Amino acid sequence: MAAKRLCILLGDQLSLRTESLKHIDKSKDMVMMAEVREEATYVKHHKKKIAFIFSAMRHFAQTLKEEGYNLYYTQYDDKDNHGSLYAQAKALIDAHDISEIFVAKAAEYRLHHDILTWQEKLGVPLTICADNRFMAQEAEFKKWADGRKQLRMEYFYREMRKQHNILLENGDPIGGKWNFDKQNRDSPDKQLDIPAPTKFEPDDISKDVIALVEREFSSHFGDIQDFHYAVTREQALVVLKEFIEYRLEDFGQYQDAMVQGEPWMYHSHVSFYINTGLLSVQECISAAEQAYISGQAPINSVEGFIRQILGWREYVRGFYWYFMPALKTSNYLEAHRKLPDLYWGADTKMNCLKQCVKETKENAYAHHIQRLMVLGNFALLAGLSPDEVNEWYLIVYADAYEWVELPNVSGMILFTDGGKLASKPYAASGAYINKMSNYCQHCEYSVKEKSGHQACPFNYLYWDFLIRHKSKLQKNQRMAMIYSTLNKMDEKKLAHMQDDAAVFLNKLDNNDYI
Ligand code: FAD
Ligand code: DLZ
Ligand code: SF4
Predict the structure, then answer these.
(1) CB–CB of 342/457 below 8 Å?
(2) pLDDT in tens, 410-462
(3) What one-character-per-residue DSSP string does 95-111 give?
(4) Domain boundary pick from 82, 112, 129
(5) 3-state SS assignment for residue 436
(6) Are residues 146 and 288 in the same domain?
(7) Ligand 2 pocket residue status of 11, Cβ below 6 Å
(8) CA neighbor of 285 nearest in space, from 164, 144, 197, 173
(9) Nearest ligand to the C-alpha of residue 281?
(10) Is residue 56 part of a domain?
(11) Is the sign of the CA dihedral 285, 288, 292, 297 positive or negative?
(12) Taking every pair of C-alpha atoms in the chain, what is the biggest distance, in angstroms?
C-alpha cells in the first residue's frame, strides 16, 4: 500500500479552510483529531469550556466525514486513547505507513514547541503550516513592531484598516475618524431593553459530552447546567447574524456598561467561535461593515466592533509571539499575592466582584469590562501574582487560549511588561465601576466613602496602589496628573487609606469574609 500523508487538526482548528488540510488528498490521505487528557487538563478548564470544545470537535468530525475525509477521531473515553496528541499521533504512525505530517501552527507557545520536537521523535517529516485564523501573520507584526519605540494597538489597527481596505472612503477613514471610542462609553443609566442571547438546545452529541464532563471533570470549576453555545459553524453563523440584527446598533454606546443580571449585554459572543475556527474574522468584519453600509448600525458601533477584532485581537496575537517566552515570566510591579478564594466563588460583600465571578462560573463568559475593570482592576490593585491570575483567566473563560489570555492579563491588566502593551495601568477607584454599572446600588460598601470600614475597598486600594508603585509609575507621562493630585493630598487622609488597605489585604490573605 502507498504511503499516506497525515493531517493533524487541533481542537481549536475547526475549519475546512485550515492550511494543513490543503496539503492532503482526501481520497487517500488521513486526518487525525483527538480529545486528550493532556489538553483538557494542562489547566483545569471550566466545565463548559471543555464541553464546548469537545462538542464542537465532534460536530466538526461529522463535517469532515461528510466532506469525504478519512478521519481518525479519538474520543476521550475510547479504549485506545493514549492521553496526549503526541502519543495519539505516534500510535497512528506505528499502525500506518505515513510519509509526511502536516499541522497548522498551534496557537499556544507551549504546544507549538512540543510539536516542534515531534519530527525527530517520530522519524517522519513534519510541516508546520500558517495559522490562517488571523489576518496578520507573525512576520507582519514583527516587521511593524521592530525598531518602534512604543507599540500601540491604535497604529497597528490603522495599518490593518488600510492594508485590508476596511471602513475606508478614498483612503480615508469613514466618518472622518479612525476611532470612535469616545462615543462608546455611555453608562447604563436608563432602563435598557437588552435582547436575549442566541441559545441552542444541546443535541445528542452535546448531551453525551455534557455527561462525559460531569463524569470526568467534576472537580473542575464552573457550572455545566444550561449549556447553550453554538457547536457547529451553521449555529455560529446564526449567533453572528443575530448579533448584527439585534445588538450591533447599541454595541458601541453600551460597550463599557455593566448591568447586574445582564451578563451578555450588547456584546457579540463570537470569541468562542472565532478562536476555534468556526467563524472567520473576515466574515465577522464584513458582516459589520455591511450593516453600516446598509444603514442598520451607526459608525461608532461598527468601528468599535471592527476595532476589537481587526485591532485588539490581531494586535494581542502578534504581541504574544513577539514577546514570548519573556512575557510569561514578566512581573514589573513585583506582585506576589496569592489568588484569593473569592475568585473561585467564596462569598464576598464586594458586589461587583461577586456578580462577575458568579456569571463567569455560570457561563464561562464575562464581557470585556467585567474582565478588565472589575476582576482585572482588583487583581492589579491588590497585587495578585501574575502566574495565579493568568492561570485563573485561562481556566474560567471558554474563549481562553494563552495567545489571547496572556497579553490581556499580563499586558493589559497587570502591567507586568512595564508598558509594552498598554501606555499605563488600567487602575481605577470605585467611581469608575459606579459610573459604568449599577453594582454599587446593591453593595454593602459605600462607593462614596474613601476610608473607614464602610468604604468601597477599590477606593483605598487605588491610592495605596499608586503610593506603593510611585517610583515606577510617577515617571509615566500619562500618570502625571494623578500623581500631581496624589502629591497634593492631605497626608493624614492618605495614611488612613493606607491603613485601611493594609487591614483589607491582610484579610484577603487569610480569605476572611470581606
Ligand atoms: P465583543 O465585545 O463582542 O468583541 C468582539 C470581538 O473582539 C471578540 O469576540 C474578540 O474576538 C475581539 N476582542 C475584543 N477585545 C479583545 C481583546 N482585548 N483581545 C483580543 N480580542 C478581543 N478574549 C478572548 O478571546 N480570550 C481570552 O482568553 C480573553 N481574555 C481576556 C482577559 C482579560 C483580562 C481581558 C481584559 C480581556 C480578555 N479577552 C479575551 C478579550 C475580550 O474580553 C473578549 O474577547 C470578549 O469579552 C469576548 O466576548 P465577545 O465575543 O462578546 O466580545
Ligand atoms: C482547549 C482544548 C481542550 C480542552 N481539549 C483539546 C483536546 O482534547 N484536543 C485538542 O486537540 N485540543 C484541545 N484543546 C485545544 C488545544 O489546547 C489548542 O489547540 C492549543 O491550546 C493551542 O491553541
Ligand atoms: Fe464594587 Fe465598591 Fe461598588 Fe461595592 S461599592 S460594587 S465594592 S465598586
Answers:
(1) no
(2) 999 999 999 999 999 999 999 999 999 999 999 999 999 999 999 999 999 99
(3) HS-EEEEEEEPPSSHHH
(4) 129
(5) helix
(6) yes
(7) yes
(8) 164
(9) 1
(10) yes
(11) negative
(12) 84
